[in-house]
Amino acid sequence: MHICCLEKGRRERDEIMKILMHTMHMSTSIGASLQACALGKKLLSIGHSPYLLYYVPPFYSDVLSSNVHCSSFRDVFSYIINGGNREKERLRFVDFKNKCHSPLTNKYTGIDSLLSDVPAFDAYICGSDQVWNPMITHYDMSYFFTFVNNGAKKISYAASIGRDVVSLDIEEYLSTGLSHMDYIGVREDTAVSAIKKILPDMDITQNIDPTFLLDKEEWRTMYSQPQSNLPKRYILYYPIKETELGISLLAEMKRKYALPCVSFSSSFRKAEGVDLNLHGIGPAEFLYLCNNAEMVLTNSFHGFALSVIHKKKVICFTKPHQNTRMESLSRLLNLQDLMISSVGEVKSKKWDNVWSSCYKSIAARIKQEQNRADAYLRKALG
After folding, report:
1. Are residues 56 and 193 in the same domain?
2. DSSP bridge partners of 262
3. Which residues in the chain show pLDDT less than 50?
């Protein structure tokens, strides 16, 4: 009996895989940091040992470095004015990374350094986020694990191209890279269609963003209150880029619900309509602000995603372009009514009814996607 128990324990230990995740997590991007955190925790929960590739080629920032790169006089001037806020923000990201992210590998500065010292793992997962958007990655082939030749499985989870229209040069880039992958999971339904055209015989799976793999209670353990003088009730305004539509939406919601607006940035300049502009906000502080907000107005993909997870009264206003990611998520979870693309929609919709209708069965829809994600990961790693 004792020998059988030892053999069972040995088999269980042998099944624990050491997994390398290759994604974007070294910048001060709240969404990038949260999705990297979530996928690592998911892999840990199904019995594996995840690590994050510490990858900072020249065109990427390194949140662990306090060095400042200024390429113009405008950059220098901005740093003189806002540098203290940026450093406070960076340190908040570092703190979150130390507490909530998977362990880091050694530092790599480009695909050549990966080829000269290939990190040895049992499996390799790229994603989530826009790891296959060449406008961001500069056509970096490392996100297809072209540096790996040890026979280990190469998997993508919720990888994003970040666009609807794929040009011929991007098709060629994807075709070359995807030929190295064993399992392909992408985040947007448009990416499924685009890759199917390139690789018609390949099985392509749509995965929900990793942030949905953790529920509200799991995210709650990571909250950090940014400061003590927050209003009891407030609108959280989180624009990736300010637009006339966002400004009009904020003005209307403030008028209708008589709530102050809280926002955050590294700049001392407050956006139009903002009553309290916070500085030094990292992922943990954002989670707190989102959870405690009465309402969230955003054109950020992960701002939208985390608001839905927390069942917030959220309105997602579109940008002039690049709305693929948010539109796909809204279709996946049947939340199209939470998105607006014109000022007319702001006033015409009965928002309390919209929120009630959209969230009526949201828990079941998210659970269904969580189960699909779990099955996909277990099959790919099995």
Report:
1. yes
2. 236, 276
3. 1-13
